Records
---
Amino acid sequence: MTETDAILWLDIGNTRVKYWLTTNDVVTEHFAELHLKSPLDLLAGLTYHFQSFPVQAIYLSSVLNQETNASIQTLLRKISPNVQFAKVRDGMHNLKVGYADPFRLGIDRWLQMLAVADPNQKQLVVGCGTALTIDILTGMNHQGGYILPSLYLQRNSLGLGTQGVKVENHSFLNTQQGTDTLSAVHNGILGGLIGAILFFHGTHSDHKLVLTGGDAQLFAEQIKQYNSNIAIRTQADLVFIGLKKYFQN
């Protein structure tokens, strides 16, 4: 790989496909879209878009199963013959995975930690995506973590599991007590997840909070309102930063 290569970076999650296109190591195009459980359909459109680009390589993170990933690789080779998936590598850049079986750790969580891992830092890496993930990172050692249903998974499950609560889509804005069912549901769910983050931070109060993902800013603002002294860093694209570290170093 040379400095002038155009590279397509893909992050394929449970509900979204995101990409960066870099040229001369500068992000020249970016995109994020719900794939509605049909990532191949969305990627087919992207493949058509990128056939006119001189893409030298495609590097990606995917949380999907092996069969789907094989189909994705076949599709993406229409753009470039060099298609490579990131895989969890225990000990890469001295980052030690805290799972007994390192390969059971999600690639997205591992790349997020790879992006920020620092031997001199203690961090709680919080992924605010389809699931809310919390990983404890002490220096270069992953200590394990937690996975909770996200704002939207909780809202959907409440609507499916109750007869009397009619859950309509609404913005998650604050944690004040609700004055109607709509605000009670949304504020309660947001407050519950904020409470979970604060609880786990309380058990590791010497760790800095690092929030990433689409709802990172929302959670950061709510936490700061509760306690302005908590050290928080927000970074929306840690998976891509981790991908670049994985393939370029």
---
Amino acid sequence: MPKVKVNDINMYYEIHGEGFPFLMIRGLSSDVYRWPLSLVKEISKHLKVVLFDNRGAGRTDKPDIEYSIKMMANDTVGLMNHLNIEDAHILGYSMGGSIAQEIVLNYPEKVKKLILCSTGCGGPKSVPASEEIRKRLASSREGLSDEEILRNSISIYFTESFIQNNPDKVEEYIRRSLLAPIPPYAYRRQLMAAFNFNSYDRLKNIKTPTLVLSGKEDILVPHENSILLAEQIPKAKLILLNNLGHGLFTPDPLRISKIILEFLT
């Protein structure tokens, strides 16, 4: 299990396949285990897929200090430098999309093509989740088991029809998500970093070819945020997918991998 010292932390990473580098950045409280294996396998037939755990999650260090999206962007670039990756395609999912935006804005030479999935610009211009969803995200996790926390959040990530019709896929997602659960303090640190992010006024500065991808039934980061990103980022391409929620990859990994590869290759 490779780790490398980046800034003040030891970062866990994996490399799958060969070819031009493609970094995939996970979201809030998430780690590499949550990428569907079939998605990674398919994309790695064409590109060198680099997966890693953000600070505070998975098998990367979890210092109990203030986090920021810019800090996590700098972690990512530090990992790229360690791996001798001069530039790469970068996909950011959810909070990972915020990290990806911060990378392309501060290190544009590092990003060949950009994919922003189920994410937004943050700040007052963004379209928030409902008050009920926001309360669930911010509620205390103390006294709950990791499995209870995860099962309580499943309906945020997936549509009701997917949960009812695909119990095996849901249980596999839960199983993999429990392999390296995030401690409550680290979750709060990541959550505050995500809450404080705002890129709206800087989006016009992104010159990198960009794909914005979202599920139309996303209740965590409503798809209107993707429309806003695509409107503000010059020449961005927007794809909105029917019958998909925030958990964009799990329901049909091969469909999503096809969309990704068509844009990148």
---
Amino acid sequence: MPFIPHTQSDIQEMLAVIGIDHIDDLYDEVPAELRATLQTTPEALSEMAVMRLMRERAAQNGSLLNFAGAGAYEHHIPAAVWELAGRGEFLTAYTPYQAEASQGTLQVIYEFQTLLTRLTAMDVCNASVYDGASGLAEAVLMAVRLRKDKARKALIPRSLSPLYRRAVTAIVGLQDIELVELPMDAATAAPDLSAVDTTDCAALVIPFPDFFGQLMDVHTLTDWATEKGLISIACVNPMALALLTPPGQWGKTGADICVGEAQPFGVPLSAGGPYVGFVACKKAHVRQMPGRIIGRTVDLEGKPGFTLTLQAREQHIRRAKATSNICTNQGLAMTAATIYLSLMGPEGLHKVALACHQGLNALTDQLAEVGLKPVFGGSRFHEMVIRLPVPVAPVLESMMDNQHVLAGIDISVDYPELGNALLICVTETRTAEDRELFISGLRQALAGAASSVTTPSITSSTTTGLGV
């Protein structure tokens, strides 16, 4: 076993010194049901065999039309993005602590920060965090630090993504921070602030768009937060900012913090990751911003250069006293996002966002012909919610089996008050032909679901009191 440095006698000797009999005893505090067992390692394959196996596995996915979103979006990625991001100097780059050896990586991160600040109209942006959800949790922690008092509550609209809400709860819930859920208006999904007690509250989270694709009145919400002395946290889909007012220009003073997920910018869905969150803020708050920050400077000879700034490496190991315990930037995904934004430019990004908006409007009109309308009124971007006359799950299954269409996401579990609610997303990748296939498949699935519902026979025992 050339790759296993310890023989069985070595292991037994080490265990004896520790005072245990078996390696498993090292993990006796982990419940048995949570322990993973290593399965038998398969026999090695040649490179050719591995590539063939991977092609076979990929082919099993087939050609799928994707109308699902909910924070993970399928956009066209120009071929140049990953031809460049896949180069060795990017693909294997480590966190750039040593500026003299990492100028290329540092410059890419600096460009990422610059592009995101321009898109969000915020003063500064960090060098990315794990994903948008953990970025929001970091923003809540940041808001609590900025208040410097006993305020340890954050107002979270119910219309914020349930995935984000769960992630934030998991991260800040054990740090004596309470998340107060704001009920949503039944007509627009906007948060209801009429009876909110802001005592001990540090922040208000403003999703834009929200989980349903709705565009709330962010100017009023931002000003309300400012009047109440709260830190306003914008949680955005950055693609929407190519069309809409950026957080730095919300209300009279702009949002204090902006977080989001940059996955739409050149990062494929890839079965769930990696993602690349970002945190931006006003310059006055920069000392409390998590993650790394790259600055542009000059050396002793006056030559421009890039370096980590405002934070020492050692602060990241200060546990609870650290600004952030994130010790890795999502370098590869961040690089892809930077290349994507550079290639698209403001005009290209505007066209992509506009195509998404027009496609969603077109599908909305087509759904109306089937008798289905959005649950919420008002403006929306990327996504909408419709209510089906039958349960959502069998409709999704039928459309997957018969048309190979992922028709959206069943959100009835997270939002039972909405009934049989289906969340649908349209990006620029969905053509008119795709929408026609969606509508025809939906018609077929609804007809099949309706015909499968059998009417129970009416007997004397079931008619009692029914007036029949």
